[in-house]
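For concreteness, we quote verbatim a single protein encoded this way:
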Amino acid sequence: MLDIDFVRSNFPAFSEPSLQGQAFFENAGGSFACGQVIDRLTRFYRTRKVQPYAPYEASQLGGDEMDEARSRLAALLGVETDEVSFGPSTTQNTYVLAQAFRQYLQPGEAIIVTNQDHEANTGPWRHLVNKGIEVREWKVNRDTGHLDIADLENLLDDSVRLVCFPHCSNVVGEINPVLEITALCHAAGAFVCVDGVSYAPHGFVNVGDLGPDVYLFSSYKTYGPHQGIMVIRRTLGQILPNQGHYFNAGALYKRFTPAGPDHAQIAACAGMVDYMEALGAHHGVSARDMHDVMRDHEVALLQPLLDAVKDRNSVRLIGPSEASSRAPTVALALNRPGEEVAAEMAQHGIMCGGGDFYAVRALEAMGVDMDKGVLRLSFVHYTTEAEVTKVIEALDAVL
């Protein structure tokens, strides 16, 4: 079982006086930062905020910390060190990747995207139609938001070169079977790009075991600084045209980073691994095995919330009603604007959000009134049972 007191002791936000009495339920928009990340970021700015990789000590220490972040994250994710690259955001990383595919693909070839995605992992790919690339849409079920693999099979043929889909949607919440989908796409001769932004906060995955060619997520949602992290496997990374400086084309982790990275934030990302290793040591498992411990805690807390909303009048639960098949990102379509309800929830000590959350295509496909959007309640492993009870009580009062 997850030691929730130990978990929360690693997050300065929970001892911050200005946040006392409030329960944070907008983690899908960005998590609290763990102390290990804050300490590393502070140290870098205080003592190592110089151009890295120069021959003097402060510069060498800064470069070493950046290298440490990349190598330790790669080990946690089950990939090679140079297969991990950093960018200003996942949106930017996806855009750069799409430009590489724009040069690589030929007119008449096809890619597959979904309408379950956050716009960041579908919009850049859809623009490739302007170059003569066929864009096929893997559509969600209107009632459930589910992506049926049989529908994907009908879209795959010899002309498909790339399939892009989310590990889980930031409004539907259902966890898609990445391993199964990836195997199907690879068998059809297509590369696979997975948007892991909405899943990674609930447990770092072994990308090597799952098999996608690209896996993207955002460190500011995994208890770290505001960076985008992209795993791109060597086979694909060396095939795609270089998007960085020509003289960096031989370094895989620089090929898709045309802009200079934020040195301090890259270095601070090592703090995310510090945190996972501290959790693992405390619970007697490896840092990688903490994935299951975190998920078990989340599932136990999520089911009472789903039960409280799934049969409520004038509330439509988006996505599955079984906690085991989804992330604790719960979108509710109401009879009034989600932002309005979120403001009322704040009066009850609940920090949450309302709107479309850049998942306009998904919500429209499910018939959600976009003038109202949804109320979204999202939590992670540092959330307590008492906080879930508090959010249910606030919903009772507001709805």
